[in-house]
Specification:
alpha+beta, D-amino Acid Aminotransferase, Chain A, domain 1, 3 domains, 4-stranded parallel beta sheet, about 25% strand, globular, disordered N terminus
Length: about 525
């Protein structure tokens, strides 16, 4: 079936008010570049002896003011360091670019995790570049502003065997690929709409996947109040409505509207006009998930990014599972993992971490829905990783007991990407879609608990080398013989913010959880 995709450039966010202007050159050269991927690309699981070169640009090309809500977000460029696993192929070369230079001990840590290859051999095939720019701009923009740096990167590239990998794809990444004349293993930016809140809801409807009732995308507070009132009128039982910026990160762009104080204008108690007026006034009292957010700033983002109103799913026992999938350059859809996400914040809206796999009572159900969504995305031309978040509510008197509602598609690498990459790197195993488990080559099932937000003020001042001293002394580092232990990321964030990323791997969920708490206890004792 042929699908015509309409580009929606107005829905692509401005990353910064001073974002570099992307040239309006024809898309045809980009599409020609992309055709190379079908011959260049190989699955990361495949031991590939061909010459291959991968440029990794871990730019968070998202709305920068929204990203600043996350402590130490400029260190999140380190989360793709698990991509160094590609160096286990002896003829693969990597170029990794960051805003600021990486601490040498962090790079050494990842290289020494590589199974079956000397770290020195891998290091010889790794080039590191830095823009030496800590400003609040996407890394890709910083590179485009530095033609001399681009020339140095270009000199290291073999364009016949190279492609680019990024955190998320926007017009900036497309422009960089064109300037370097290498294909981008990522989403065509013209398809970004399908990863927004509004686009997600459209795909859920097309796939017949259950999702909460909600509104269309709007761009001003008055219209948002109107569609919020319409939602309440359709769903008169609602206690809360969630207001979502069309582009958010880790749930920081969500806010809750409590309907209890508005009982006087509830459906059948007042006119639609009266309800809209009261709702718009109540927006000033929204319960923001980010503690530094204000209505004045949030309203500005509604104008810039757009927002939707969506029914908030209540439940005494509620979880937030997710799936992760991959669409390769040939259009094939592969399911990679399921997770139960660990959420925090005032109302459980902010991503803190995850556990693998999701509960066995629903993981195959969300996997099936995720696969249907992946095939829909593939038909639209999407490529590379995608994730789908769900809400699961337990009902003891129903079968199945868990009611599942899809709430969001992420067309980028996300918070569940790097823990799963760590598991693959450390165990060299595979995911089994038949039961949703991960197995080593020896047939041992593996489980993990991961977090991006292990953060305490007492951890500030710890260097990456201090972290290694503490964990090795307590024998909590990953043991390649036993296949259990802890792996770390965001180590550059530790000294300044007291924040660390951790993936604890065990032979059972209980063991993974135990290792996680042992690491926390070790750090607490040491600090």
């Amino acid at each position: 079936m042929t699908l015509t995709v309409i580009a929606r450039p107005s829905l692509i966010p401005n990353m910064m008010s001073d974002t570099l202007t992307v040239s309006s050159r024809s898309d045809m050269p980009f599409q020609q570049l992309q055709t190379r991927l079908k011959t260049l690309w190989r699955s990361p699981d495949e031991f590939d002896v061909r010459n291959c070169q991968v440029l990794i640009v871990p730019s968070l090309s998202l709305d920068q003011s929204e990203l600043q809500k996350i402590a130490g977000v400029h260190f999140y460029e380190e989360r793709l360091l698990f991509s160094l696993a590609r160096l286990r192929n002896p003829h693969t070369k990597l170029i990794y670019v960051t805003s600021q230079p990486l601490h040498p001990s962090i790079v050494d840590y990842y290289l020494e995790l590589l199974p079956g290859i000397p770290s020195s051999h891998a290091r010889d095939r790794l080039d590191l570049f830095a823009a030496y720019d800590a400003s609040q701009k996407p890394l890709t923009q910083k590179l485009l502003e530095r033609p001399r740096l681009l020339d140095k990167i270009r000199e290291r590239l073999d364009p016949d065997h190279a492609y680019m990998v990024c955190f998320n794809a926007t017009p900036l990444e497309r422009e960089l690929a064109l300037k370097l004349e290498i294909p981008l293993l990522g989403l065509d930016p013209d398809l970004l709409y399908w990863g927004t809140k509004g686009g997600s809801r459209q795909i859920f409807a097309e796939c017949g996947v259950p999702h909460p009732d909600g509104s269309e995308l709007v761009h001003d507070a008055a219209t948002l109040a109107d569609v919020t009132a319409e939602l309440w009128e359709r769903q008169t039982h609602l206690q809360r409505i969630v207001i979502k910026l069309n582009q958010g990160f880790s749930g920081e762009g969500n806010a809750l509207l409590n309907l209890a104080p508005l009982a006087a204008v509830a459906p059948e108690q007042a006119t639609h006009h009266e309800r809209v007026e009261r709702i718009q006034a109540a927006f000033r009292d929204l319960r923001f998930q980010c503690p530094t957010e204000t209505w004045a700033h949030f309203e500005q983002k509604i104008h810039e990014l757009g927002a939707i109103a969506e029914a908030f799913i209540e439940g005494d026992i509620k979880r937030s599972p997710s799936i992760q999938g991959y669409i390769n350059p040939l259009g094939d859809v592969e399911m990679l993992s399921t997770h139960d996400q660990v959420l925090g914040g005032p109302d459980g809206q902010i991503f803190l971490g995850c556990s693998f796999p999701a509960d066995e009572e629903y993981r195959l159900r969300i996997q099936a829905m995720g696969e249907a969504i992946g095939k829909n995305l593939a038909q639209k031309g999407a490529m590379e990783r995608f994730g789908v978040d769900f809400v699961a509510v337990y009902h003891p008197n129903r079968m199945p007991n868990w009611d599942l509602q899809a709430i969001e598609i992420n067309l980028r690498k996300g918070g569940t990407t790097h823990p799963f990459m760590a598991l693959k790197l450390l165990t060299d195993g595979h995911y089994c879609p038949a039961d949703g488990l991960f197995y080593t080559r020896q047939g041992q099932a593996k489980f993990y608990r991961a977090s991006d937000n292990l953060q305490k003020a007492t951890y500030r001042g710890l260097l990456p080398s201090d972290l290694m001293d503490i964990i090795v002394s307590d024998r909590l580092h990953f043991n390649s013989v036993e296949g259990v232990g802890a792996a770390f990321h965001l180590m550059g964030c530790l000294s300044e913010y007291g924040k660390l990323g951790l993936t604890s791997i065990g032979n059972s969920p209980a063991q993974a959880e135990e290792i996680y708490h042992q690491v926390v206890a070790s750090l607490d004792r040491a600090t």
